[in-house]
Amino acid sequence: xxxxxxxxxxxxxxxxxxxxxxxxxxxxxxxxxxxxxxxxxxxxxxxxxxxxxxxxxxxxxxxxxxxxxxxxxxxxxxxxxxxxxxxxxxxxxxxxxxxxxxxxxxxxxxxxxxxxxxxxxxxxxxxxxxxxxxxxxxxxxxxxxxxxxxxxxxxxxxxxxxxxxxxxxxxxxxxxxxxxxxxxxxxxxxxxxxxxxxxxxxxxxxxxxxxxxxxxxxxxxxxxxxxxxxxxxxxxxxxxxxxxxxxxxxxxxxxxxxxxxxxxxxxxxxxxxxxxxxxxxxxxxxxxxxxxxxxxxxxxxxxxxxxxxxxx
Amino acid sequence: xxxxxxxxxxxxxxxxxxxxxxxxxxxxxxxxxxxxxxxxxxxxxxxxxxxxxxxxxxxxxxxxxxxxxxxxxxxxxxxxxxxxxxxxxxxxxxxxxxxxxxxxxxxxxxxxxxxxxxxxxxxxxxxxxxxxxxxxxxxxxxxxxxxxxxxxxxxxxxxxxxxxxxxxxxxxxxxxxxxxxxxxxxxxxxxxxxxxxxxxxxxxxxxxxxxxxxxxxxxxxxxxxxxxxxxxxxxxxxxxxxxxxxxxxxxxxxxxxxxxxxxxxxxxxxxxxxxxxxxx
Lengths: 312, 280
Fold this sequence. Notes:
The complex is a heterodimer. By secondary structure, chain A is α/β, with parallel strands linked by helices. Helices cover 39% and strands 20% of the residues of chain A. Chain A has helices spanning 6-20, 38-43, 55-67, 78-81, 86-95, 123-128, 141-151, 199-212, 230-240, 255-266, 286-292, 297-310; strands spanning 3-4, 24-28, 48-50, 71-77, 101-105, 134-136, 158-161, 167-168, 183-186, 191-195, 217-221, 224-226, 242-250, 271-276. Chain A has a seven-stranded mixed sheet, with helices on both faces. In chain A, strand 10 (191-195), helix 8 and strand 11 form a beta-alpha-beta unit. The two termini of chain A are 36 Å apart. Chain B is α/β, with parallel strands linked by helices. Chain B is built from nine helices and seven strands, in the order ααβααβαβββααβαβα. Chain B has a five-stranded parallel sheet with strand order 1-2-3-7-6, sandwiched between helices. In chain B, strands 4-5 form a two-stranded antiparallel ribbon. Classes of the chains: A alpha/beta, B alpha/beta. At the A-B interface, helix 3 and helix 5 of A face helix 4 and helix 5 of B. Chain A: Belongs to the transketolase family. Chain A: Keywords: Thiamine pyrophosphate. Chain A: InterPro entries: PDH/Transketolase, THDP-binding, Transketo_C/PFOR_II, Transketolase-like_Pyr-bd, Transketolase_C.
């Protein structure tokens, strides 16, 4: 299966767009290499602003640029943006409603071996609680490209989370991407798996395995975590009953919590939230850590069977 | 500076001081000492220095102002109302239910660029604005007013580095150096001296002035950049609570609200400086 890191797709798309719209600027915090933005810096040096290792300043400067007509894209580490500069994101970006796109790179368990300081598995919980801020996690290169093409024409503050590693494709070329609209990637009638980012591929693979067992599984790509597509959740609950959520994030405050909030208040069904439990995640390559915490196809198949048998 | 201009600014500043005290008295909350401290700085900026259009608040060529010490919003609102950015009647809604005149600057109010109030944010924002002006070859300047207690925020120094690194000579920082913060003397809470040396070593042009002297204020605020390619920091020595005898130099007045008799005394002190009748 072909794969590419979402950040690389974002960089290529931004280069194309920034050549046409000179107000598009990228800000980095000694992170251009990690963000795959070196190419942008080489091709459009006047439109890349290096701020150094200073995340608070990074976000404040971006807000000032946006308030003066620029279209800034921050490309810095999700772990630090979501914790160290969260007040600047809350006040200078979200509250002041400046047109800043905050791209959290190396999100989730991208830096698996480096420990909790570099794991970014609380970012969605934090960002989701901030008013005026949209939160998006694209699934693959095609969706990343389409997302950026949509965002350049959107003036709202947005937090985007991508990983460091190449992600296997879930789309083939053309993507239908609309902010706050979940996408049914595969239909099914026995249960629904709702996932975002890298986990959409895992959800599709799991659904394929489940089909071999005679279980019909719907897969929803919930690329926008806020505003959340309540409708698709309520509809799937009604049509498939059971729901599993998958996320490269703490089980507190992320996709699973968001889906549960909708279900509990509208159409409670049996549900399983699969993510990182309340502990400093173990060290290891991302794939190894996924497997340890059940974010891999065999575990998901077992959880699906359990969920179905418990409620029959 | 002509004597008539000084008299005009002094009269205006007295009027703003009186209005902000009335506003705080009515709202029963506000940052009294902080607002009185920076009134002369803001008055000089708004009535004499900055290029603005009241009827076109978003005019692209306007000079920008960021109140990084956002808690001192009362003098700011009173000036915006006096200039006509908002209706003077609206000052009565300060901090009231559903008002847009919130206790910290709100960019839903015409004339206000950004929401501030969390300390240590303004200089970074101003760096971004000044950088945008340079990128677009625009002539506008960016002014940012910080508190002295605020200098303890680490993000101020991140922005200090960036302002010098980017060579933003269109960026003018002002520190309202009244030497008091909410707990007491700045040098007792967390020493920030030597402030001049710190900013110089960070690559800024530093000017130290009397922050209540309109001539000095105007000269410094108008004649920047002092040196091409360098941002300017104006260290304005001020008196917290300036203009009302019993409020001056008292940390306790950081956000104390005057009583009715205290307000009356302030009116007695300030009214003669305005030279016009004061109504309710």
